[in-house]
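Annotated sample (chain length 337).
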Amino acid sequence: MTLYAVLSDIHANLQALEAVVEDARRVARREKAGKLHFVCLGDVVDYGPQPNECVAWVQENAELVVQGNHEKAVADPFPQAIYTILPSYRPITLWTRRELEDEHRKVIGDWKFVHAAPPVLADFTLFHGSLAWGEDGYIHHVRAAGENLRRLKTDYGLFGHTHYQGYFVEEEFGKVVMALACPERLPNRMDKWRPAEVGKWKALPEHGQPALFNPGSVGQPRCHPYLTTAGIPGDNRAAYMLLKLNGSGRQFQFRRVAYDVKETVRRLRGIRWSERGSEAEGSSIYKDEADAVRRAKDPLSEMLTETLDQMPERLSALVEGTLIPTITGEMADDWRW
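Output written by the structure step:
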């Protein structure tokens, strides 16, 4: 029996990552699995306070790693890639670009958007955002899922990006059904979606029923608007997924794990931005990028220049007003994600 832990959207939250790893290893011991295998579907960096530590862990422990849109925004040539990030979130992306060590910047720049899987995962395609619209595209409803299922060349897809834990499956007559992970058992009577239990093994759909699975976010889980509309409270515990592959007996399980949120909040509040950036450690990334932005002659560069000029204030406001409320579960979700 082969056991895979599928992680996505760690977002530089080391406390959540460590809790997920510990939980996965505990399940592996209980299941008497051999080696526990890790794969990662992207967005290891950005939003959180420990990007270097998270990249280092993934580099050392994950057998397959997909590049997410935040890796692209942090590692690609500046300033073009950062324009794909929402303006209000650019301060933390700029901080991450400056904070990331050169070795880790190169590592995440080499990751691929779609990953070729080894024979044991030959029935799976691994990607971050969307097969139809690239790493910045979202699969958050059945129409988007249908377009991606048509492009899927394997039985199953594993993707991230939305932070919504659940799956889409094509049933009879091409009908696509969405299942969202819920912390409690609910009746299958929802019009637009059905519940998927957390912490329970379930058989993968049969061959001929293509499906797309999202393990949810390790470092920044979010609540799908359909859950909110149904009156189901959000769950800010770290999210991931297990795959148990044993010949024809193939199963999956969604997992949720409590972690030290207070420590992540403490580290977020410790983030600082200075005009010198990291030059004291021999890096001139802040100076080079600031100069590049200010030389550019387009409306987007003017917006980024304004962000750079107000970085200390904007970074602090983003941390307190958005990043901390998101991981503590105090911020309501919406389609802008």
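Annotation: The radius of gyration is 20 Å.
Annotation: The first helix runs from residue 14 to 30.
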